[in-house]
Amino acid sequence: MTRRPTLEDVAQRAGCSRALVSIVMRDAVGASDLTRERVKQVADEIGYRPDPHAQRLRRHRSKLVGVTFAAGQEFHADVVDSLYVATEALGYDVVLSAVTPHHDEARAVRTLVDDRCEGLVLIGPQISTRRLSELASRIPVVVVARRTRGVDAVRSDDVAGAVLGVDHLVGLGHRRIVYLDGGRAPGAAERLRGYRRAVRAAGLPELVATGGLTERDGADAASSLLAADELPDAVFAFNDRCALGVMDVLIRSGVSVPQQVSVMGFDDSPLAGLTHISLTTIRQDCVALARAAVARLMERLEGTVEAADAVDVVCEPALVVRGSTIPRL
């Protein structure tokens, strides 16, 4: 059988009515044990599986949570994985819509709404606060990794994370600590604020340079540092991808990491823990972020909270020390 088996196929093979097969598949009352056993055996033999989408439509509930994320961002991928676990435990499925250079955020969101998702989790969205508020007025929305007034948000304490990073470097004796800014990315303003707070508290100069979100951004920043008169003691990048770009260019240029320049990132992506990279970084708790986001979304879906009562849930980050930072020689 090349097409997908139907209830009619099961009924014909089992020698009973379509209605009786439907009763068995729904585990409803009205069929004998012998009939249930026979129908399920036939269903297994021909490969019939109930259509979950059709079942949801009949219940007038999709039981779907739509998720937008930036393709290529490992932190986003880690959050997505944790969202699968958190939603599955509650009987929901996840529908993904990636943001790419050819599939912008507005289109990604529209796709999920058109797919009848009951609620949305937007990871690191960059659309305006006004548009987020408008969207949240039509469908339950929880934003992850960005603080947004008037919309439920779950995020890491980026200020505290940056302070942790700077304090670690200061404790190693580094005095010229360059911070590579994340521009307008979600959380960038808070991380920059944390960096500035920490270096001021240590009585050190603020050395902020253009960074970004990708390895290419980190590579460009490293090239600029190499062209300067003096290398810094340490580089603290906006995220791990940017930090990896820095490490690559420095090492290929003959600069030893960490013997000459310590490098650290932010996120604790899977690549950071590889032995040949061993990147010191700030870990975001993806599991906690996902659980908190799903818990809040369920409250919205169940109507147990007032529409105007937006929350800002903050999860604490943690310092992960590896081999890319050492005491100043």
TrEMBL record:
Q: Which CDD domains match?
A: HTH_LacI (cd01392), PBP1_LacI_sugar_binding-like (cd06267)
- Database matches in InterPro entries: HTH_LacI, LacI/GalR-like_sensor, Lambda_DNA-bd_dom_sf, Peripla_BP_I
Q: Could you tell me which residue ranges the HTH lacI-type domain spans?
A: 5-59
* Entry keyword Cell wall biogenesis/degradation: no
Name it: Transcriptional regulator, LacI family
Q: Does the keyword Transcription regulation apply?
A: yes
GO function term, MF aspect, one: transcription cis-regulatory region binding
Organism, scientific name: Mycolicibacterium hippocampi
